Amino acid sequence: MSPLGKMLIAEGREAGLAEGLAEGLAEGLLEKAVEVAKTLFKKGVDFEFVQEITGLSPEQLKEIQAQ
Predict the structure, then answer these.
(1) How far from the centroid of its chain's Cα atoms is residue 43's Cα?
(2) What's the whole-model pTM score?
(3) Sign of dihedral through CA atoms 66, 64, 59, 50?
(4) Rounded distance, CA 25 to CA 23, Å?
(5) Do 64 and 37 touch, CB atoms closer than 8 A?
(6) Each residue of 28-39: b (16+ CB within 10 Å) or e?
(7) Which residues contact 60 (CB under 8 A, 6 or more apart)?
(8) Beta-carbon neighbour count of residue 56 at 10 Å?
(9) Contact in structure between 17 and 40 (CB atoms under 8 Å)
(10) Backbone phi and psi for residue 52, each to the nearest 5 degrees, phi listed first
(11) What is the DSSP letter of 43?
């Protein structure tokens, strides 16, 4: 394989790893926000405050409340 081909493969691999890491981080942050929202709702905290603290959408919060 040519040096250019090896370089392109290495760059693609790095980009894939970075993308995977970013997706994993985003998923973990979402899971934590959902966990926090559930806890706050159980403690009787109002909807708007939960939305402000977690950053979750109204639709996401309504789904959490329905569980």
Answers:
(1) 24
(2) 0.74
(3) positive
(4) 5
(5) yes
(6) eeeeebbeebee
(7) 34, 37
(8) 19
(9) no
(10) -65, -45
(11) T
- In one-letter notation, the amino acid at residue 51 is Q
3-state secondary structure of 1: coil
H helices within 1-67, ranges in order? 3-42, 47-54, 58-66
Structure tokens at 56: 């979750």
DSSP letter assigned to residue 16: H
Tell me how many degrees the CA angle 6-8-11 measures, rounded to the nearest 5: 110
Query: pLDDT truncated to tens, each residue of the chain (67 aa)?
Result: 777 667 667 777 887 777 887 788 888 999 999 999 999 999 999 999 999 999 999 999 999 999 8
